[in-house]
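I have been asked to look over a protein record a colleague put together. Alongside the sequence sits a line of tokens, each denoting a local backbone shape. Please read both lines and tell me whether the tokens look consistent with the sequence. I do not need a full report, just your reasoning and any doubts. I have pasted the whole thing underneath without changing anything.
>
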Amino acid sequence: VGKGALYLRPLLMGTGADLGVKPSWESTFCIYCSPVGNYFKGDLKAIRLQAVRGFSRACKGGAGHVKASGNYAPAFFSQRAVKKRGFDDVICLDAATGE
């Protein structure tokens, strides 16, 4: 008890036979389910987050409102920087206001 969690990740992908830059007419929906350990190392404890100015993971007009594989890569640089400063992860501020 308390040694992990069940990771659930819904996935909707276009699976139509056509190829092009357009929405697919067919899709497949599945849910990945996997037992996982604790997200952060160590026992259950408070985590230290650092707010980052000048970087937004999602903003109006972007694709941050959907779970897309391309959403994660841009955050890696900021995450690495705050971890070097002793924080556990980054918290992104509002893209429009910077707050």
Summary: The chain has a mean pLDDT of 80.
